[in-house]
Structures are given as C-alpha cells and as structure tokens.
Specification:
The complex is a heterotrimer. Chain A has nine helices and no strands. Chain A is mostly helical. Chain B has one domain: Up-down Bundle (Four Helix Bundle (Hemerythrin (Met), subunit A)). The chains are: A mainly alpha, B mainly alpha, C mainly alpha. Chains A and B meet through helix 7, helix 8 and helix 9 of A and helix 5 and helix 6 of B.
Chain lengths: 227, 253, 61
C-alpha cells in the first residue's frame, strides 16, 4: 500500500480525534464543571466580600483553568495507547511530531477553548472588574496552548503507566510555573493599572517557541516510553 | 579505534568502572569529610562575626555551598542525561540518575537552612522571595525526575524517560528564574532583601570556598557509590555481578 | 565555650542548620550502602533459586 501524503495523514488524525470526542461529547463538559466548582470553593473558603474576591479573581480563574487542563491532560493519549493506535502513529512513515501536534491541537480545541469561553463568566462570579476580562481572555488564549504543549510532553513520558495522575501533576506543575506567573501577572498588572503588554508578549514568544519545539520533544518522549 | 576511545570504552564498561569507582569512593568521602570539617571550623570558629547579622550569618557556610551544589548536581545530571540519550551510554544513564537524589538532598538542605536563616534575619520562616521560589521549583524538578525514574518498571527505559525530563527541566530552569524575578519585582516592597556580602572578609571567604570544595568532592563520592549500586542492579544477570553477590554472601555467612 | 554555643543569641538557628546539613548528608551517604545490600541479596536469591530449580528441570523431560 502506498502511504498517503503527510497532510492527508494529519487530516485523518484530526478527523478521527474529533469523531471520537464527538461520540463522547458529554465528557467535554467535565473540565468546565470542575473549574466552576473550584471557583465556587473560593468564596466559600474566604468569605463573600466582593472587595477581597475581586483582588484574587484573575489568579484564581487562572489556577482553576490550569488544574482543569491538568485533569484533562490524562485523556490526551490514554485511549490511543490502550487500543494500540498510538503505536501505529509512531510506526507511520509521516513525521510523528506533526501528527502529535495535530492531536494536541484537537485536544486544546476541545478542552481548553470551552474553558476560555466560560472564563469571563467565572471571573464574574468572583467580581472580576470588567476591563480586566479582555486581558484575562487574551492571556488565556496565549497561555492554554502553551500549557497543552508542555503537558503533552510530560503525558508522553508517562503514557505507559497505570495510575499516572499524581506523578503527572508532579512532572507538569513545575514546568507550568512561568506560564502561570506571566499569565496571571498580566491580569494583575491590568487590574492595578500597570502596563500589561510585556508579560503577554513573553507568553506569545514562549508559545511560538513551544509550537516549534514541543511537538518534537513530545515525539522523542513518546519514542522513549513506547520503546 | 584510537587509544583515547579505547580507554573511554574500557573505563565505561560496567565491571571496570565498578572497580575504579570502588577505589575512588572512600577517598572522595574521606577528603570531603576532612575538607568539610576544616571548612566548618573556619566558618564557625575562625571567621569573624558579621557586623550586621551577628553570628546568624554563619549559616552561609552550609547554605551557600549547598545551593551551589543543588544547581551543579542538576547540570551534572542533565549533561549525563544528554550523553545517555544521544549516545545511549548505559553508564551515563546511571550517573544521571545517581545524581538526582543527591541534588535533591542538597536543595532540601538549602531550603531548610535558608528558612532557618530567614527567621532571625527577615522575621519569617518563608517569604516568596525570587531565589527561594526558584529553589523550591528546582526541588520539585528533582522530585519529578526521581518519581518518574521510580515509576517505570524497565530500568533503562526509566532512566531514559527521567533523563529526558531532566533535559526539559534544564531548559525550564532559566525561564523559571527569570519569570520569578519578574514576578517578585511586580510585587515590590513586600520582602526584605538578603543583605549581599558585597565586601566579604578573606577570613569568611576561605571557609566558604573550602565548604564548596568539600561538598563537590562529597557529591562525586556519593555519585560513584550510587552508580556502583546502579551498575549492579542493571547488570544483575551478568557473571561479574553474580560473582560479587556470592562473594559478599560468603563473607557474611 | 558557652559563648561559642550561644552564637550571639542565634545558636538555635545556626546549630540546627549545621545539624540538618550533617544529618541529611549522612543519610544520603548511607542510602547507597543499604540499597547495595538489598540488590546483592536479591541477586543471591535469584542465583539460589536457579540452582535449586536446575536439577528438577533435568528430571522432568
């Protein structure tokens, strides 16, 4: 059989992943529910004073979305590993990094994008000032793909393991630190009236770098853990 | 094959390295111990009292060398992981994984002694100072590498996966440091800065350097000791390991 | 001597630091020895199991 072109392979991967996710579309709501519950915990723990909640709103939304993304990461390669299609991807003649990039992109579209869509709403629950909302969404648009890409590398390293949840968190969270600092930092700067462009630009620069390097690293990591 | 690569391959072969390391380990521990005692004497007794911090500054003689070692061990681990991944050298895999727990131990000491130093000087056990935070992230990176290494059944695959993580970490480390610095300057004025020893007395600098040397030598001793165990574990089915195991068993009986 | 131990009032902090340093490094230095003994015992066990199993294998076929 003659192998198809790389672009058709990528399209096939994307179509397949989207179909699989569409069949289990109920699951797509889980990260949103999780983020909503985490957000709801903060007023319960800290008290309902709007002033206090407003001060921490952006950071809390950021952390809640980060944790929701962390929980969703596990599903990135899990089912593909279990049914053996991940090994087929590794064996395919097309560049593995590109195929994995497509998978990560689909994963981001289906888990992170809905979260970003509800982020202003979550901010509203914590009395986030209206003018910070735009910065929050912008920061999340730059930060969540970065989180997905970094997370994908670590998921690739733990792919063959049972019960990798806690370990994955241990591997991923230190790598998330800079993203969180710049993302939440931009929101906080906007809230206090400081210039917020610089952290966003740093995030964008890191995103460009990660877009190029993370799929390659992910492919290398996957080859190690499937060898 | 020229003489150098031949030497390299011979030294890198597990039984030879095991033997050489066995000779070196007690020397490293011994020299490290002597240098450490000299350094501690210099730091605790001989060095003069700091005019600003009193005697509390003497924590520097364990704190700073350990902080250096925490970073040094990470670089050592990452360099070996790189060699292991590119040239698939077994010995480098083991060396990299051997340095992870030692680096974690040094980073842990740095954090604890830093906290003990911070209490009398800053009035608090912990502040979200840039350096403290980066050091904490460094400890988490070490724990991640060790956790991954322990979680994978196959030893060689585990070493390669953990080594890969170490390499990702070393890319991340400067970014963390930079971002944390940026973050802390955003929240200005909340912390008291560590008083930098800008004009340090020679009587203070020599114990510090001696301690640094001692921890380095100690680190290599420990790396070699751990590598020997790692080699035994890896070559468990080989004849030379079986001979050592039986000889040790016979001596015990 | 008491002056030296008091460390100008900071004795508790200084000596705890030194103690943490020494104890952690001592534990860290003991760990490979313990692990080495465990690994070697395991290998000896494997060798003995094989030695006891070998003659039985000769009988069965």
């Amino acid at each position: 059989m003659r192998p198809g072109s790389t672009s058709s392979a990528c399209a096939a991967v994307i179509r397949r992943d989207l179909t699989l996710i569409w069949r289990r579309r109920g699951d797509a709501l889980n990260p949103i529910l999780f983020a909503l519950m985490v957000i709801a915990l903060f007023p319960l723990a800290l008290g309902p004073e709007p002033e206090q909640l407003r001060r921490i709103a952006a950071g809390v939304v950021f952390v809640a979305l980060l944790l929701a993304g962390l929980l969703a990461l596990d599903t990135l390669f899990r089912s593909d590993y279990e049914d053996g299609s991940l090994e087929q991807l590794v064996l395919s003649p097309h560049p593995l990094s590109l195929l994995l990039g497509c998978k990560v992109a689909v994963h981001w579209l289906t888990t992170a994008l809905p979260l970003i869509a509800v982020a202003p709403l979550l901010g509203e629950l914590l009395h986030l000032p209206g003018d910070v909302r735009g910065v929050l969404v912008l920061a999340l648009l730059l930060a969540t793909p970065l989180l997905s890409l970094i997370g994908a590398v670590c998921v690739a390293l733990t792919v063959g393991m049972h019960r990798s949840g806690m370990l994955l968190a241990l591997l991923v969270l230190p790598l998330y630190v800079p993203v969180l600092i710049f993302g939440a930092g931009a929101c906080n700067a906007a809230q206090t009236g400081l210039p917020f462009l610089a952290p966003l630009l740093w995030l964008a620069a890191a995103l460009v770098l990660a877009l190029v390097l993370a799929p390659l690293a992910c492919a290398a990591a996957l080859r190690i853990s499937l060898s | 094959m020229n003489a150098l690569t031949l030497w390299f391959h011979k030294t890198g072969s597990p039984p030879t390295f095991y033997r050489i390391a066995g000779v070196l380990v007690p020397w490293c521990y011994g020299i490290g111990l002597v240098l450490g005692l000299v350094g501690l004497y210099g730091g605790l007794v001989a060095a003069p009292r700091d005019y600003q911090q009193g005697d509390a500054y003497r924590i520097i003689f364990v704190h700073v060398p350990c902080a250096w070692m925490g970073l040094f061990a990470y670089f050592f681990m990452a360099a070996n992981a790189f060699v292991a991944l590119v040239w698939r050298i077994k010995l480098s895999e083991i060396l990299a994984m051997a340095s992870a727990p030692i680096g974690a131990a040094f980073t842990f000491i740095t954090l604890v002694t830093g906290s003990l130093w911070g209490k009398p000087m800053w009035g608090t056990w912990w502040t979200w100072d840039a350096r403290l935070t980066s050091e904490l992230v460094l400890l988490f990176l070490y724990l991640g590498v060790m956790g991954l290494y322990a979680a994978i059944e196959d030893r060689r695959q585990a070493a390669r996966a953990a080594g890969f993580l170490a390499l990702i970490g070393i890319v991340n480390l400067p970014i963390v440091h930079f971002s944390v610095n940026w973050w802390n300057t955003l929240h200005q004025g909340s912390t008291v800065r560590l008083i930098g020893p800008s004009k340090i007395d020679p009587a203070m600098i020599w114990p510090l350097l001696t301690m640094a040397l001692a921890t380095h030598v100690w680190f290599f001793g420990s790396v070699l000791a751990r590598t020997r165990t790692g080699l035994l574990e890896l070559d468990a089915g080989k004849d030379w390991v079986r001979r050592i195991a039986l000889a040790e068993g016979a001596r015990r009986d | 001597m008491t002056d030296f131990l008091a460390m100008g009032g900071y004795g508790a902090y200084v000596w705890t630091s030194i103690a943490v340093f020494l104890v952690v490094l001592a534990l860290e230095a003991l760990a490979p020895g313990v692990q080495r003994r465990r690994v070697l015992a395991e290998i000896r066990g494997r060798v003995q199991r094989r030695a006891t199993r070998a003659p039985r294998n000769d009988e069965t076929p």
